[in-house]
């Protein structure tokens, strides 16, 4: 979707039909009809000399160059001009460019124009109000006699020139048909080839995600493609299905909160339906070639919200059923899942680079087992991916009780975390003498979430004399000791333990964090903060455990948000947010000080702190995400119109 005009009208993205035309009979060209079906405003340009000015004067938004001789399937054209993920994408006779790359396209057109002797005299012609032609009306047929073949636009040449300044993705339409017809005979041959291919069958097959986990492959992907097509025919987009998935999951949370067996069974069914919709939205995006940064962020964020809302519903239902201490198990399950994901994200941040330096786990597994699909599924299942985790949750909710759900999730999570941790440590050993990159160190610096107190410490002390992981382990041991002696000496020692922790953590987090095992710092710090909140609440004010759950949920949202920003475009929350919220070490100091005030002060303070953090973290994330998407023009492509009976 392109940016708003000052009038408030959203302009259509523009497609320029260029080059000589091989007649396909009276009326508009078939490729022009296809482009309009995809939501493009079509402008016809005869000569290369007129193209730079036409592109420069086009409305804001995505632009595409399409050879007027293009013949092929609609979905092949859709994939070539509607995929908004790359800045530029080229196919047979097509080149689509995002708004951010339009200046580079103009430079490429200028370079190609300068290298070509212009001899054509025909002016741009258009059947839309975007570009006015003084010589041709909307109904005027193409004047092929006015086109000089020497000045025809070679889109492949333009794409090559553009690739010098922008990464140009290349799309292969096979097995669909897409080509350039140089003569009526070639057009007839391409049309015959297109009729021989079942476009809809391929479109449906390619929409379904390949190489998924075993549970998702057999129990969701078998029907998700058909459901995606049905949603497309209803006119719904991927983001609509993502929101629907969240609504269904919240319904599941409300259902299990009743604390009845029928509520648990119905909640499990609804939660599985929410997971299915979560898979369908991706299939729908591929089916309609409708990708957006906003949709990707919503999908990732809602995954966490749905699961943690279900945890809250289970805990509330168990409380109504006479189990008031279930909240600490719910908070522990949520905290451990976040710690595990932090470990994965931190390692991925430092290992992003050449495959020979740090190959991904899936690549290593597949290389070792020689392509055995069942072995791949088994090894993936060990690390408890989302599909298997969702299935496990649904089965446990339907047939057991909330306490069993959380205990089993914690036990299985420990096994998965141990397996993943061991593999990452072994692969990191190759970096003992070769540190990770500086960019990896900066990413870890954002993930550790150390606040102003830590900044003062590590800027005042000399360089580290011990490796950061070992220093962090010492800090963690000091904290664990202070929590372990609470039953014997009270909460007074907690403040001392937290002070030691903050001091040592500030020392450990000194940049650069690019040592061979520095990626263990973010999950270690998450475990420390979440454990402090849960243990202090359970020991001092058990009635405030729901507030501890909310505190962990708010912090987990922030830490996941940081991961998503880093993986998306390398950004992270601004410094003012860390100052305002204290960083994880500052928040731990606040918790320890609240504990000194007794149960009532701690309960009220924890509740206020959880609410304040949730408001600040969510508000900052929403405003920052909206600003980045608006400034980046990431949605400069129309939602591909995937209606029934699309023209081939």
UniProtKB/TrEMBL annotation:
<keyword id="KW-0472">Membrane</keyword>
<dbReference type="GO" id="GO:0016020">
    <property type="term" value="C:membrane"/>
</dbReference>
<dbReference type="GO" id="GO:0016780">
    <property type="term" value="F:phosphotransferase activity, for other substituted phosphate groups"/>
</dbReference>
<feature type="region of interest" description="Disordered">
    <location>
        <begin position="117"/>
        <end position="147"/>
    </location>
</feature>
<feature type="transmembrane region" description="Helical">
    <location>
        <begin position="589"/>
        <end position="619"/>
    </location>
</feature>
<keyword id="KW-0812">Transmembrane</keyword>
<dbReference type="InterPro" id="IPR000462">
    <property type="entry name" value="CDP-OH_P_trans"/>
</dbReference>
<dbReference type="Pfam" id="PF01066">
    <property type="entry name" value="CDP-OH_P_transf"/>
</dbReference>
<dbReference type="InterPro" id="IPR048254">
    <property type="entry name" value="CDP_ALCOHOL_P_TRANSF_CS"/>
</dbReference>
<feature type="transmembrane region" description="Helical">
    <location>
        <begin position="442"/>
        <end position="461"/>
    </location>
</feature>
<feature type="compositionally biased region" description="Polar residues">
    <location>
        <begin position="127"/>
        <end position="142"/>
    </location>
</feature>
<protein>
    <submittedName>
        <fullName>Phosphatidylglycerophosphate synthase</fullName>
    </submittedName>
</protein>
<feature type="transmembrane region" description="Helical">
    <location>
        <begin position="404"/>
        <end position="422"/>
    </location>
</feature>
<feature type="transmembrane region" description="Helical">
    <location>
        <begin position="530"/>
        <end position="557"/>
    </location>
</feature>
<keyword id="KW-1133">Transmembrane helix</keyword>
<feature type="compositionally biased region" description="Low complexity">
    <location>
        <begin position="117"/>
        <end position="126"/>
    </location>
</feature>
<dbReference type="GO" id="GO:0008654">
    <property type="term" value="P:phospholipid biosynthetic process"/>
</dbReference>
<comment type="similarity">
    <text>Belongs to the CDP-alcohol phosphatidyltransferase class-I family.</text>
</comment>
<dbReference type="Pfam" id="PF19365">
    <property type="entry name" value="DUF5941"/>
</dbReference>
<feature type="domain" description="DUF5941">
    <location>
        <begin position="439"/>
        <end position="642"/>
    </location>
</feature>
<feature type="transmembrane region" description="Helical">
    <location>
        <begin position="493"/>
        <end position="510"/>
    </location>
</feature>
<dbReference type="InterPro" id="IPR043130">
    <property type="entry name" value="CDP-OH_PTrfase_TM_dom"/>
</dbReference>
<keyword id="KW-0808">Transferase</keyword>
<dbReference type="InterPro" id="IPR045985">
    <property type="entry name" value="DUF5941"/>
</dbReference>
């Amino acid at each position: 979707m392109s940016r708003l005009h000052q009038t408030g009208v959203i302009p259509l993205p523009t497609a320029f039909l260029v080059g000589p035309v091989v007649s396909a009979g009276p009326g508009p060209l078939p490729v022009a009809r296809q482009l309009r079906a995809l939501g493009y405003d079509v402008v016809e340009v005869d000569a290369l000399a007129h193209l730079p000015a036409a592109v420069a004067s086009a409305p804001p938004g995505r632009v595409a160059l399409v050879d007027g001789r293009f013949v092929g399937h609609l979905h092949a054209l859709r994939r070539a001009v509607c995929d908004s993920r790359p800045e530029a994408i080229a196919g047979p006779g097509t080149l689509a460019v995002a708004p951010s790359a339009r200046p580079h396209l103009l430079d490429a057109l200028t370079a190609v124009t300068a290298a070509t002797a212009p001899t054509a005299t025909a002016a741009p012609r258009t059947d839309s109000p975007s570009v006015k032609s003084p010589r041709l009306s909307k109904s005027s047929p193409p004047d092929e006699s006015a086109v000089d073949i020497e000045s025809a636009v070679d889109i492949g040449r333009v794409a090559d020139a553009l690739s010098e300044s922008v990464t140009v993705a290349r799309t292969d339409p096979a097995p669909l048909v897409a080509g350039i017809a140089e003569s009526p005979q070639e057009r007839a041959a391409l049309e015959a080839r297109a009729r021989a291919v079942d476009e809809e069958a391929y479109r449906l097959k390619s929409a379904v995600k390949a190489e998924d986990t075993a549970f998702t492959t057999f129990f969701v992907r078998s029907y998700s493609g058909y459901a995606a097509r049905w949603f497309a025919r209803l006119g719904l987009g991927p983001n609509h299905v993502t929101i629907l998935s969240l609504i269904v999951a919240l319904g599941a949370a409300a259902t299990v909160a009743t604390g009845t067996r029928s509520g648990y069974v119905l909640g499990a069914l609804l939660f599985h339906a929410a997971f299915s919709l979560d898979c369908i939205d991706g299939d729908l995006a591929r089916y309609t070639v409708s990708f957006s940064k906003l949709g990707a962020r919503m999908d990732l964020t809602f995954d966490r919200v749905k699961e943690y809302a279900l945890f809250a519903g289970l805990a509330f239902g168990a409380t109504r059923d006479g189990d008031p201490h279930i909240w600490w198990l719910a908070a522990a399950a949520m905290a451990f899942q976040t710690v595990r994901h932090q470990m994965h994200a931190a390692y991925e941040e430092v290992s992003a680079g050449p495959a020979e330096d740090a190959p991904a786990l899936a690549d290593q597994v597949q290389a070792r087992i020689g392509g055995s699909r069942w072995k791949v599924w088994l090894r993936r299942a060990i690390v408890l991916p989302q599909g298997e985790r969702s299935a496990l949750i649904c089965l446990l909710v339907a047939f057991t009780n909330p306490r069993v759900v959380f205990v089993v999730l914690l036990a299985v999570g420990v096994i998965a975390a141990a397996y993943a941790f061991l593999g990452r440590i072994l692969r990191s050993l190759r970096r003992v003498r070769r540190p990770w990159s500086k960019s990896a160190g900066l990413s870890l610096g954002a993930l550790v979430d150390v606040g102003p107190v830590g900044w003062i410490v590590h800027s005042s002390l000399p360089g580290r004399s011990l490796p950061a992981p070992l220093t962090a382990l010492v800090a963690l041991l000091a904290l664990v000791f202070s929590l372990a002696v609470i039953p014997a000496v009270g909460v007074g020692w907690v403040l001392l333990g937290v002070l030691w922790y903050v001091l040592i953590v500030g020392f450990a987090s000194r940049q650069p964090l690019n040592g061979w095992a520095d990626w263990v710092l973010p999950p270690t710090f998450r475990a420390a903060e979440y454990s402090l909140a849960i243990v202090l609440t359970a020991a001092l004010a058990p009635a405030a455990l729901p507030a501890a759950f909310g505190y962990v949920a708010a912090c987990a949202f922030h830490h996941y948000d940081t991961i998503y920003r880093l993986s998306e475009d390398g950004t992270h929350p601004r410094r003012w947010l860390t100052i305002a919220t204290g960083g994880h070490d500052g928040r731990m100091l606040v918790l320890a000080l609240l504990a000194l005030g007794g149960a009532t002060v701690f309960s009220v303070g924890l509740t206020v702190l959880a609410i304040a953090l949730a408001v600040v973290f969510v508000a900052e994330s929403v405003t920052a995400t909206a600003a980045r998407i608006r400034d980046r023009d990431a949605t400069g492509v129309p939602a591909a119109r995937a209606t029934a009976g699309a023209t081939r």
